[in-house]
Automatic annotation (TrEMBL):
One of its GO terms (biological process) is bacterial-type flagellum-dependent cell motility. GO terms for molecular function: structural molecule activity. Assembles around the rod to form the L-ring and probably protects the motor/basal body from shearing forces during rotation. NCBIfam families: PRK05303.1 (NF003676). The gene is flgI. It comes from the Bacteria. This is Flagellar P-ring protein. GO terms for cellular component: bacterial-type flagellum basal body, distal rod, P ring; outer membrane-bounded periplasmic space. Pfam families: FlgI. Keywords: Bacterial flagellum, Cell projection, Cilium, Flagellum, Signal. InterPro entries: Flag_FlgI (IPR001782). PANTHER family: FLAGELLAR P-RING PERIPLASMIC PROTEIN FLGI, FLAGELLAR P-RING PROTEIN.
Length: 372
């Protein structure tokens, strides 16, 4: 019952938000619409050991790689184990270390890292990560990680019962890695930089070109396709940084995006990015029926007024749940109104999902329908 009420609340919020969405686009900063080609993060990964655990480490009988790693580490440090020695390591856990190397990071800078258990350790709380090299996709070492793990929200005990708030097999180390190698950047090469739109859109690309040329002069920018825009930039590094700063601060009004409706079949939530109108259709789902009829409305000018006859489409929505219970929506048959009307007569989120899918299949819903 709680899930159903929660789903209906989400539907009501969706209907309210839909009424506030308009087709007017507002100006946004260029840095929110596009990124500079070559200015990006790089993912780093490494394999290491966490020691100092209070008996919550890997069970060595089920994680032989932990024993092999410890034996290899000891051998590198000059400790040779007698043949046939069986290690019982309850305070050690094998982990994977991940981090993101930001653009223009230089040797000596520090990075935050995430440490995740890859064996069957019960908890990493109180552990210390030993020196771990972090490699990029090219298998080159770009940073070294080491430090004490922090596992937040471990839990509390009340009345003899334990409440676990966080996942104990994952921890973080703030500034736990030091950059050892910088990633070469092509940004300072040549007199051309390229902007990459976050979403491919020819209209938005043309608007960006127009805004850049208006601010910096003609022929400064040119669109290569619906996503990449080539911009002429100064050769001097200091002037180029100032130029790119001003470029990212330009206000551009993006083109209106395509209508899209996102359905979450697990939670029953429905989200759309703009108001969506519906064509004529009739849907029957259980004891629910939805009928959308679009009729022409003719507006004829007065005699001798030299006006033109206008034919507009006027939509009528009729929704029934039981005999005698009808909701009529005059003109403007939008998806928001259909959702609101369905919610008013007690339709469940699953009913809504099924009806929207049927409308899309029938060609009445003029929007991209994505189910997650």
């Amino acid at each position: 019952m709680r899930l159903e009420k929660s789903g209906r609340t989400l539907v009501m919020l969706f209907a309210l938000l839909a009424t506030l969405i308009s087709g007017v686009s507002h100006a946004e900063r260029l840095k929110d619409l596009a990124s500079i080609q070559g200015v990006r993060q790089n993912q780093l990964i490494g394999y290491g050991l966490v020691v100092g655990l209070d008996g919550s480490g890997d069970q060595t009988t089920q994680t032989p790689f932990t024993v092999q790693s410890v034996a290899s580490m000891l051998q590198q440090m000059g400790v040779n184990l007698p043949p046939g020695t069986t290690l019982q390591l309850k305070n050690v856990a094998a982990v994977m270390v991940t981090a993101s190397l930001p653009a223009f990071a230089q040797p000596g800078q520090t990075l935050d890292i995430t440490v995740s258990s890859m064996g069957n350790a019960k908890s990493l709380r109180g552990g210390t990560l030993l020196m771990t090299p972090l490699k990029g996709a090219d298998n080159q070492i770009y940073a070294m990680a080491q430090g004490n793990l922090l596992v937040g929200g471990v839990g509390a005990s009340a009345g003899g019962s334990k409440v676990q708030v966080n996942h104990l097999s994952v921890g973080r180390i703030s500034a736990g890695a030091t950059v050892e190698r910088a990633v070469p950047s092509s940004l300072s090469q040549g007199n051309v930089v390229r902007l990459e739109l976050n979403d491919t859109d020819f209209s938005t690309a043309s608007r960006v070109v127009a805004a850049v040329n208006k601010h910096f002069g003609n022929n400064t920018a040119a669109a290569l396709d619906g996503r990449v825009i080539q911009v002429q930039a100064p050769l001097n590094s200091d002037e180029r940084v100032a130029f790119l700063g001003a470029l990212e601060s330009l206000n551009v009004t993006p083109a209106q995006t395509a209508a899209k409706v996102i359905l979450n079949a697990r939670t029953g939530s429905v989200v759309m990015n703009q108001a969506v109108t519906l064509d004529s259709c009739a849907v029957s789902h259980g004891n629910l029926s939805v009928m959308i009829d679009t009729q022409p409305v003719i507006s004829q000018p007065a005699p001798f007024s030299q006006g033109q006859t206008v034919v507009a489409q006027r939509s009528q929505v009729e929704i029934k749940k039981e005999p005698g219970q009808v909701l009529m929506l005059q003109s403007g048959a939008s998806l928001a109104e259909v959702v609101r009307a369905l919610n008013a007569i007690g339709a469940t989120p699953q009913d809504l999902l099924a009806i929207l899918q049927a409308m899309k299949a029938a060609g009445s819903l003029r929007a991209e329908l994505e189910i997650i």
